[in-house]
Amino acid sequence: MSSRYTVTALLLCSCAIVFTPSLTTVTSSVAADLTGRPAVGAVVPATGMAALAVMPTQPAAIAPDLGTTAAPVLPQASILPGAAQTPQAAEPAYREVAPGENPFAPSAPKPAAASVVPSTIAPAANPFGSSATDKAGTAKAAAPSKVDETALRYYAKTRDLKRLGAELRRLKALYPGWEASEDLFNQSTAIDEQPLWDIYAAGDLPRLRAELARIASSNPEWKPSSDLMEKLQMAETRKLIERAYARAAWAQVISTAQQQPQLLVCSEMNALWQVGEALAKTKDMARAFDLYKYVLTNCDEPAERLATMQKASALLPAAGITSLMALGRTMPDGTSEFASFTYDAIRKQMGALSEGDPMARPISGADLEAFAAYVETSQSATDAGLFGWYYYSQKQWEPAHAWFAAATQYGNDIKNIEGVILSLRNLGKLDDAYALAGRFAPQSDDIRKEYIELVSASLTDKASTLKVSEEDLGTFKTYVYAAKSALGAQALGWSVLEDKGPAEARPLFAQSAEWGPTEGGITGLAVVASRLKNYAQVAALKQQYGDEFPGLKEFSTAQPKKSKRIVQTVQVSAKASATDAAALASKDKRRPLQKWLYSKEYAR
Question: How many CA atoms lie within 13 A of 178 on its CB side?
Fold first, then answer.
């Protein structure tokens, strides 16, 4: 066997790559016991109803019984992709085409009507290449008179067999008739390129250029490997595109990409997205469509494909989106990979309505039912939570609770636990809300806030049925000081005032006022000052907060002296007898010093 074949066999054996599938197991339940029953007539998840049937022994504090109504039947409905798209003021002309074809391309013979999307779609060509480009972005070309073997020889000299194999395969793909030289390993090492690769890996491209020039000046016959130079040029082009994109210099983005079409490949998705946006912003819809089609027919990463579809939907007219939707791959359950994208318009509407946007359009019942059916099939925790917040904003507590509970079964988003707690509070299920808040408070600042509000209400509202143990009260105090909660501090103040008196309560009210003046905290300070006969502080509080909290006007700022009152009374009425004066003094002695503001709102 000749040495040439020995070299080839060695390279093929040493550079073999084994691919193994990535298997991921997702656990979708954080609190599977958070399940409630919805109200009649609401669009609700059937999942929650099914869970109730298999959990008859669920503790009441975790799975409250909200009724026995059955879940409504969700009709089969669909939303046409692009239905919510708003036509642009000057939408580019387009023609009717088969699904997946470019509706913005120059006129051509009209294709026959296609009612079924072809099962196989030919890979789209790189819109900037002069010939077809494969997934790796390497354009096929005829073999030149002399093949550049610089990189190949360098890798052979350094015994870098992995890169040597990759370079050998690249050259063979470019020039099928080419064979590697027999003396590939019979070379003396001259320049070590590893420091140059280290500079490249660090991203310091100007320094790399300077180092290349320095080495070349000392070694006139030396040439850097083609692999290094190609990667350097692509990195420099990538930087130029990013800078032009940041300045919205769309024409420069496009012209730079045209100079380096090898950059527009699946491994450079960000560059593809930036160039696609530049084409759309310059109204070149035909080439923008081709670029997005190239991604959807050549690139395999599901998240990048969906993101490409979302970006295209924000830039292309509805005709282009409808055509691109046909390029979606079929999932194992028979749905399109872009089924989720179909409901993006409804998601935006629901989000706007949840935030109270007065310009948000109402959503039809049919659209909500179709989206709900999709969410139950996809078991998306994010979408189920979106339904929960939507109904919560509409003050429909029961369907909100049902959707939040379903969301906790679909995924691990702590915000959905918060939604369960809030909806339970509004349903009057305070014990259930309190149990969940105490359970998940260590995991979320927002849930700790809910916990503080629940306990504060139990301490300051006489009508509250929620009972807090001494142990939980200690936990509550810890959370109050960690969160610097003015509400929690003043609630503790009222509780201590009732049990231990004004001296013990004063520091708590003062702390509440320091963290944030509230009516309860400032009123508590006034009550404490009055009981301790510190009328100067009462006067100061009225001066500072009287306009903000009108209730402070009811407080007295001084205690009249008996002798002064008697003298004043006698002077006012010369006919007043000593008996009248004595009676007046006696009456004044019994007169209350303060009309307390210890109302239901601030009482225990």
Answer: 21
